[in-house]
Specification:
It contains 10 helices and 12 strands. With 371 residues, it is of the alpha/beta class. Helix 8 crosses helix 10 (331-351). The two termini are 50 Å apart. Belongs to the NAD(P)-dependent epimerase/dehydratase family. UDP-glucuronic acid decarboxylase subfamily.
């Protein structure tokens, strides 16, 4: 409708501009011949051509730079949860690499604005769908001969008795604890993928993802990074559960995405750890964020949560040897980028008179999300 209105307006404008010229040109036929007519018309139409060009430029969607891949090299990739934190960064990487990407998301924790810069691109498709209504992607993978990548988690190791955790470790998980649904859910997802691979011959890749942070994190997800940054920026106490001596290893999202793409393109069918082997205590992490934000917030110690893993650090020798992958973004550099992102989010939300408060790390379920 907008294009039609613009076209009608331009026609009206051309008619109003050319009409006087036609009269003058009619006189010019008698006086100077047909050359004068063409000259007058060109003079009248030239500004209109420029206006049309400006309008076309203003209505043309500008996309991030995308490589051109031949039909032979270009893949068609479906990402469930592709509008979420990690999924949207993976979408960006695959789109810019020149592949065709279809994102499926119910926008419960994901957001359309995470992928809105691709909407309308010929290589991109967005589907609003909740996987509670099954998509049967495993059957789709079998039918079209596709490879299936499962985004698993370090939570499959539970509160580990082996340190650092390698892919051969079977884990130490409380099956009836407050985190059991997530931990055991991811473990059974791995089980089902490998069972389907053996039964139907579908290629499977499994990434065990350790703590990841970066832009587009949900501000109220209750995770340790978003909690600490929001608390520091807003002058709230930084809440540490227990003594803060429990350890975690944090990687920036771009490192994870590069690892996922490398794994997807590899021939490694067994699980692979993707994480940063640089280990920090939760207390050290809180103090580092407080320092980077230059915050006056104090650190508040709360009772230790049930089943909170005491040590968490990935053994990434397999990824380094077989994928040639390891994290390259320094912790402070990644944190500064994430702090800038949250600062902008707070500014936008302050304009709407809404200031988010960090969730109390899902304490109703008995355990904070320090992982």
């Amino acid at each position: 409708m907008m294009k039609i209105l613009i076209a009608l307006a331009l026609i009206a404008y051309i008619a109003s501009e050319i009409k006087p010229s036609v009269v003058v040109s009619h006189r010019s036929i008698q006086e100077h011949g047909e050359m004068k007519i063409e000259q007058r018309i060109d003079e009248a139409v030239a500004p209109l051509r420029e206006k049309i060009r400006e309008l076309e430029l203003s209505f043309t969607q500008k996309y991030p730079p995308v490589k051109f891949l031949s039909e032979k090299d270009r893949k068609r990739i479906l990402i469930t949860g592709g509008a979420g934190f990690v999924g949207s960064h993976l979408t960006d990487k695959l789109m810019m690499d020149g592949h065709e990407v279809t994102v499926v998301d119910n926008f419960f924790t994901g957001r359309k604005r995470n992928v809105e810069h691709w909407i309308g691109h010929e290589n991109f498709e967005l589907i609003n769908h909740d996987v509670v209504e099954p998509l049967y992607i495993e059957g789709l993978a079998k039918r079209v001969g596709a490879r299936l990548l499962l985004a698993s988690t370090s939570e499959v190791y539970g509160d580990p008795e082996v340190h650092p955790q390698n892919e051969d470790y079977w884990g130490h998980v409380n099956p009836i604890g407050p985190r059991a649904c997530y931990d055991e859910g991811k473990r059974v997802a791995e089980t089902m993928c490998y069972a389907y691979m053996k039964q139907e011959g579908v290629e499977v890749r499994v990434a065990r993802i350790f703590n990841t942070f970066g832009s587009r994190m949900h501000m109220n997800d209750g995770r340790v990074v978003s909690n600490f940054i929001l608390q520091a920026l807003q002058g709230e106490p930084l809440t540490v559960y227990g003594s803060g001596s429990q350890t975690r290893a944090f990687q920036y999202v771009s490192d994870l995405v590069n690892g996922l793409v490398s794994l997807m393109n590899s021939n490694i069918s067994s699980p692979v750890n993707l994480g940063n082997p640089e280990e920090h205590t939760i207390l050290e992490f809180a103090q580092l964020i407080k320092s980077l934000v230059v915050s006056r917030s104090h650190i508040q110690f709360l009772p230790e949560a049930q089943d909170d893993p005491q040590r968490r650090r990935p053994d990434i020798r397999k990824a380094k040897m077989l994928l040639g992958w390891e994290p390259v973004v320094p912790l402070e550099e990644g944190l500064n980028k994430t702090i800038q992102y949250f600062s902008r989010e707070l500014e936008h939300q302050a304009n709407n008179q809404y200031i988010p408060k960090p969730k109390a790390a899902r304490m109703k379920k008995g355990r904070p999300r320090h992982n």
